[in-house]
Write a structure and sequence with these properties.
about 300 residues; alpha/beta; Malonyl-Coenzyme A Acyl Carrier Protein, domain 2; Alpha-Beta Plaits; 2 domains; 4-stranded antiparallel sheet; about 15% strand
């Protein structure tokens, strides 16, 4: 078995996430009690209504807290991956798992990332929308048409899996592109529960600020390779993690290609870490031969640990 950890991104958050893990395992309570974000992670994860938890400045460090907790629990069980990856903010937790960030730096950098992503786009009426069952070529055709009409910025933001591509940008432009996609034969166009035009050129200012912060952050050597969102590959010669993460925030997430890359490196089993089963669904649609497990609570933790250890 060659195992990879996959870390969930924004949109998977839910009220109460991590509460039962906190109650069951005293060893990981520090993850939710970490003060590096400047606000109460435990209260937000366990008590905050979804509309509050879904504000990106809160979502990002809160999702990191539960990812950190589950990673620690897996390591306590002697379960280590050969590789890791994550969707957008989940990439930071993948790097944490590999040793690049410590607990405080993971929480603080994601609190900063969420803050600048929110603040730099606060005056932009934005939207993200998942387009189902329409080719990349037709979606790009729709985007080009909208951009030629000067309706605002719209771009491909996520290539999640075969049959699912996310577009994002200014609301009017995204709505126009979605309508064209539907006329072209898209099965559905579904708005996403996120609070900004992530992974589009509208994140340029946030990218610059994040890059400056990352250059000031102490990073450690990776203990295993992470497959990055913006390249769908491991760290190449001459590439640096701060540069890749700076570009990631304004570049499309190549998640489908990330799964193919993991498969090409021999990965046959993945554990999705974090609320929901979104990434496992992407894996099944992209590389169904890969065995998928998910951990988001106590029950799924025990179930997955037993299955992986007996595999």
């Amino acid at each position: 078995m060659k195992l990879a950890f996959l870390y969930a991104g924004q949109g998977s958050q839910k009220t109460g996430m991590g509460r039962d893990l906190y109650e069951e395992f005293p060893s990981i309570r520090s993850c939710f009690e970490n003060k590096s974000a400047g606000f109460d992670l435990k209260e937000l994860c366990f008590e905050a209504p979804l509309e509050v938890l879904s504000k990106t400045r809160y979502t990002q460090p809160c999702m990191a807290a539960i990812a950190m907790a589950i990673t620690k629990l897996l390591y306590d069980e002697g379960i280590y991956p050969s590789y890791a990856a994550g969707l957008s903010l989940g990439e930071y937790s993948a790097l944490y798992a590999s040793g690049v960030f410590d607990d405080d730096s993971l929480i603080s950098i994601l609190a900063f990332r969420g803050k600048v992503m929110e603040e730099t786009t606060a005056n932009i009426k934005s939207k993200m929308c998942a387009v189902f069952n329409l080719s990349e070529e037709r979606i790009m055709e729709a985007i080009d048409k909208v951009n030629s009409l000067n309706l605002g910025v719209v771009a491909c933001a996520n290539f999640n899996c075969p049959g699912q591509i996310v577009i994002g940008g200014e609301e009017k432009a995204v709505d126009a592109a979605a309508e064209i996609c539907k006329r072209m034969g898209a099965k559905r166009c579904v708005p996403l529960n996120v609070s900004g035009p992530f992974h589009t050129p509208l994140m340029e200012e946030a990218s610059v600020l994040l890059g400056e912060r990352l250059e000031q952050t102490k990073l450690y050597d990776m203990s295993f390779s992470v497959v990055f969102n913006s390249t769908a590959d491991i760290l190449g010669d001459g590439e640096t993690i701060p540069h890749i993460l700076k570009n990631q925030i304004k570049s499309p997430v190549l998640f489908e290609k990330t799964i193919y890359r993991l498969r090409s490196m021999g990965v046959d089993t993945i554990i999705e870490i974090g609320p929901g089963r979104v990434l496992s669904g992407f894996v099944r649609k992209t590389a169904p031969e890969i065995v998928s497990y998910t951990i988001e609570d106590v029950e799924s933790f025990y179930k997955t640990v037993k299955a992986v250890k007996s595999a």
